Amino acid sequence: MKIIHTADWHIGKILHKQELNEEIRLFFDWLEAYIMTENPDLLLISGDIFDMANPSNKDQELYYSMLNRLSKTGIETIITGGNHDSVSLLNAPESILKNMKIHVLGGVNEDIKNHIIPVYKDNKLSCIILAIPYLREKDLKNVETADKSDPDADKVSLAVQGYYDRCTALARKLYGSDVPVIAMGHLFMRGSLTSESERDIHVGNLQGIESKYIHPDIAYLALGHIHKPQRIGGNERIRYSGSPVYLDFSEIRYPKQVVIIQIEQGKLTIQPMPIPKFRELLRLSGTYSEVSAALDTFTNQYPLKAFVELDITEPGFSLEVQQQLDDLMEVNHAQYKIIKRKMSMGNKDNLLVNNLIQYERMEEMTPLRMLEILLEDEGLDEVLVAEIVKQYSEIIESMHD
Ligand SMILES: [Mn+2]
Asked: What is the pLDDT of residue 253?
């Protein structure tokens, strides 16, 4: 049995006013072609299907047409909701998707049996999937916590552990202990390396969940939430597949991938599989002339036009440079598009000018970041700031539910 693990598609994501659906489309083509050649049996998508809880009709069209293509390949698919997803939006087509071998679990179901999916190959039970979506605080309220004796453990970690333990135990009870259990999750694990494109990842759990809380019977934990592909704590069995396309300039240093899990006679082999790069995200910094020289020699090697971020520092204030930069932003170049610019001229004596130039970044700021700046300005104690930010994030998060 062969399984593909992916997550964090973020259909509808907009980066500095630019849609990223073109690269998602190319990823879908690649994924479909891979499935047709390699014939995997199962596809796991661990949350954050859409970037927003209320995706546009166009974004939904992209999603459903992909589900249709997946169904035509014959693969079985399991989709769980992430913190960006609307539970009811994902669940709405549940009954029709079931006929297409697509299971969708947008949120926590009252009957935990619904989160346990046996997967068969040639009429033989091959593995059991614990299809667990993003766990919201309200889902964890009534969970029997696993180990009350550990004084260092935080409540969220214990409740998450309790929930996974309950599902694992029920899976064992229903299907015996001979087949591997594979769990899905949309969690923030302790020790994971984040980028700038995850939104409010620390909600309810600042430290993240330690891998020791993951039940030893879970042979593989297919994670979503963090966009950089990685193992947790050097552990092969706990992995983030990462997002399939670049969602932010902070992600440019690492390659994108899906994870392939093979099960043979109950044994797992885990292998990352690189996804081709569809678009270059290029960060250029230096003086105006250095940056424009770099742009002059730039050659795009990827199917889509490169997106460029400029970070320009000039030794002194110059209207001429300001004008040249404005003109550069307007150029419709065949190889690249400048989608973001930062500029500072001189230093202390031009503080006011710099503030004015930076002002446009305000519109790119999230409300959370503004709150942080405000609190920083107030000179409040760090612990208090963290607590206010956490409570604020929880309120915002509950509004997305
Ligand atoms: Mn995400």
From this structure: 83
CA of 322 to the centre of ligand 1 (A): 36
Q: Give residue 71 CA to ligand 1 midpoint distance, Å.
A: 24
C-alpha 84 chain-centroid distance: 9
Q: What is the pLDDT of residues 284-297, one digit of tens each?
A: 999 999 999 999 99
Residue ranges covered by each domain of the chain: 2-274, 279-364, 367-400
Half-sphere exposure of 236 (CA within 13 A, CB side): 8
Q: Is 73 left (phi over 0), alpha (psi -120 to 50) or beta?
A: alpha
How many A from CA of 318 to the centre of ligand 1?
41
CA of 279 to the centre of ligand 1 (A): 19
Tokens of 160: 């998450």
Sequence-ordered alpha helix ranges (H) in 39-84: 57-73
pLDDT computed for residue 342 by the predictor:
84
Contact, 364 vs 170, CB < 8 A?
Answer: no
The Å distance, Cα 257 to ligand 1 centre, comes to: 15
Return d(Cα 202, Cα 143) in angstroms, integer.
20
The fold adopted by the segment(s) 2-274 is Purple Acid Phosphatase; chain A, domain 2 (3.60.21)
User: What's the predicted TM-score (pTM) here?
Assistant: 0.85
pLDDT per residue as tens digits for the range 174-206: 999 999 999 999 999 988 887 777 765 555 555
Q: State the amino acid at position 210 in one-letter form.
A: E
Q: What is the mean pLDDT of residues 15-25?
A: 95
Q: Which of 363, 362, 368 is nearest to 400 (CA)?
A: 368
Which of 86, 11, 4, 84 shows the shortest CA–CA distance to 45? 4
